[in-house]
Design goal:
The chain is mainly α. Helices cover 40% and strands 10% of the residues. Helix 2 (33-48) packs antiparallel against helix 7 (132-146). The structure holds zinc ion.
């Protein structure tokens, strides 16, 4: 394990931002890829409260900014955001695949999408950036790093355009409360462990390694009721949401015939699961409802 020195104070953060390593980025000294990704992340943090982002969300807007402000045109369009996303300093940022595993060294745009790559500024960095004066000075420094002729006002406008419309804060609050209520009602019914593999538990009374998964996706109108939920570890949650795992009407597990485990341990999480019963709450009234299973089988499971 490499020890990474995360900046804890504003001077440490600014010093690090002044010495971003541009060597992996074609175009050399003035390559603005990392400052532009950072500006986008800082603004996103200010708008939404956290910097966590999926590569899928960042690729287009950040790629567009880079296309606008990079002098070097040697990087193919689609690859622009992939470079800083993967290469941004680990002191600032952690980028992983969908299962929190490391990203392959040369992963490009397509591969990052396939891996469900995501990233987040280190919590210590986020904490510094939550303070507006720090954020302002960081932005000033990064804007200067992008440099070039006449980018000032135009760049600010481009950055505003690159952000998704902000969700009103009261809705964020409502969602957070709602999510924690759903998890709070569901997870105890499963003993705070994954219904598939039994992983998970409590750390100082807070559930760790286990999540409240919706069967009928919430984004599609699935309700926050325990009958529409199942406790899953991160791994089985991801496989369930991608449709690699499904549930039969009898509440046994189905493994997608299209799922092929990767090299190494890629197949281990689903080995022997096809046809196995999924653990359910003792009370029949709390078990997963057929209508929700039906929705998942029809819309998510990969037949
Ligand atoms: Zn599990």
């Amino acid at each position: 394990m490499t020890t990474v020195g995360h900046p804890r104070t504003e001077p440490e953060l600014l010093a690090l931002l002044r010495t971003l390593n541009r060597s992996g980025l074609r175009g050399g000294g003035r390559a603005p890829h990392k400052p532009l990704l950072l500006l986008w992340l800082v603004d996103r943090l200010a708008a939404s409260g956290n910097s966590e982002t999926r590569y899928e969300e960042a690729a287009e807007p950040v790629g567009r900014l880079i296309a606008q402000y990079a002098e070097a045109r040697s990087v193919p369009d689609g690859e622009r955001a992939a470079l800083p996303f993967r290469l941004l300093e680990a002191e600032l940022w952690a980028a992983t695949d969908a299962f929190s595993g490391p990203l392959p060294a040369h992963a490009g745009h397509r591969r990052l999408l396939d891996l469900g790559a995501r990233g987040r500024l280190h919590p210590a960095v986020e904490e510094l950036l939550h303070q507006q004066p720090v954020r302002d000075r960081v932005r000033t420094l990064l804007l200067a790093e992008v440099g070039g002729a006449g980018t000032g006002g135009t760049l600010e406008q481009s950055l505003r355009d690159a952000l998704p419309p902000a969700e009103p804060r009261y809705r964020q609050e409502t969602r957070r409360v709602r999510d924690s209520r759903f998890a709070g009602a569901l997870l105890p019914l499963y003993g705070h462990t994954c219904a598939v593999c039994g992983f998970g538990g409590l750390l100082d009374g807070v559930p760790v390694g286990v999540q409240a998964a919706h069967v009928h996706a919430h984004a599609d109108g699935g309700p926050d009721v325990v009958q529409n939920g199942i406790a899953l570890c991160g791994l089985h949650h991801a496989l369930f949401d991608y449709g690699a795992l499904g549930l039969s009407e009898e509440l046994t597990l189905m493994v997608s015939p299209r799922f092929v485990g990767g090299e190494g341990h890629g197949g281990t999480p689903v080995a022997g699961l096809d046809g196995a019963p999924v653990r359910q709450p003792r009370e029949a009234a709390h078990r997963v409802g057929r209508e929700y299973v039906g929705w998942h089988t029809k819309n998510v499971f990969r037949h």
